[in-house]
Amino acid sequence: MTSIRTDPLSGAATYVVGSRQARPNLPEATCPFCPGGLEAPEPYEVRWFPNRWPAMPDERCEVILYTPRHDATFAGLGADGAHRVVELWAERSAALGARADIAYVLVFENRGPEVGATITHPHGQIYAFDFVPELPLRELRRSGPVSQPGDRLVATADGWRAWVPEAPTFPYVLLLMPDEPVPDLPSLDRVGRRAMAELLVDVLDRLDRLFAADTPYMLWIHQRPFDGGAWPGARLHVEIVTPWRAAGVPRYVAAGELGSGVYFNPVVPEEAARRLREAR
Question: Across the chain, what does the average pLDDT equal?
């Protein structure tokens, strides 16, 4: 059984999903995402399927397989492989967003056991909500001119830029956004999708080079809601966060921050951007 509940103090929404308590923590002998595995019985380049252990009902949770190569990284896909992933993200966003019961489509990835990923095969997920979640809604309501990255700029691709935000809550955060306003993934043209793929490959490779390791990260994409509203200030963007403040050293978010909602970042954003620029 799944139920959504609202905290009476904060108003925050929480899905209570008792069925997920029984999901396996690690796959058995073989990877279910490799060709011939449980979730990928046929050869593929990229693939999607409904999550066998969904966080929400009615096939609103999907898994996206980036590549048949088990030991690949997103950066290792190269521009062509990453472009196929971006095309699938856009395709599934459009398909889910066209449903009458869907208001918001969130594309995301968790990489590494440090952020809860239990299967190392390169993959991401999509959650399709029947409401607009609090964080993207807050961004949409605050929509306005995007601040210039200045010396926090890290990398560029054709019509796209990646930079460290001015006030990140984690030591290493990257914001990727097209120069011209684009509201959502389906609205992004082929040139823009290719540039988005190239920039993702670039910055994720920089993270691995910076720490000389397969850096754990969380990635999510915010886009215009699919609820039929105008949302004139919506701007497609990608955010990438690593829990590391140094190689293998996690940055913990604890009571003082969770209890106050105010965050204390030990790494100066301009210094983080410089290190990422030099990680090539």
Answer: 94
Domains, the chain, with CATH or none:
33-278 (3.30.428.10)
pLDDT of residue 202: 98
Q: Which residues pair with 184 in a beta bridge?
A: none
Own/partner contacts of 86-91, CB < 8 Å, gap of 24 or more, are: 86/185, 86/193, 86/194, 86/196, 86/197, 86/200, 87/46, 87/193, 88/46, 88/48, 88/64, 89/64, 89/126, 89/185, 89/221, 90/185, 90/186, 90/188, 90/193
Is 274 in contact with 153 (CB distance < 8 Å)?
Answer: no
- Report CA 103 to chain centroid distance, whole Å: 18
Residues of the chain falling short of pLDDT 70: 1, 22-28
* Other beta carbons less than 10 A from residue 13's beta carbon: 13
* pLDDT at res. 198: 98
> For the CA atoms of the chain, what is the radius of gyration?
19
Distance CA 94, CA 216 (A): 29
Query: Phi then psi for 177, rounded to 5 degrees?
Result: -150, 140
Taking the model in full, what pTM does it have? 0.94
Strand partners, 155: 162
Q: How far is CA 14 from the centre of its chain?
A: 20
251 neighbors 170 (Cβ within 8 angstroms): yes
| pLDDT tens digits for range 192-217 | 999 999 999 999 999 999 999 999 99
User: Would you say 2 and 51 are in contact if contact means Cβ atoms under 8 Å apart?
Assistant: no
pLDDT (0 to 100) of residue 118: 87
d(Cα 127, Cα 122) in Å, to the nearest integer?
17
Tokens coding 21: 């308590």
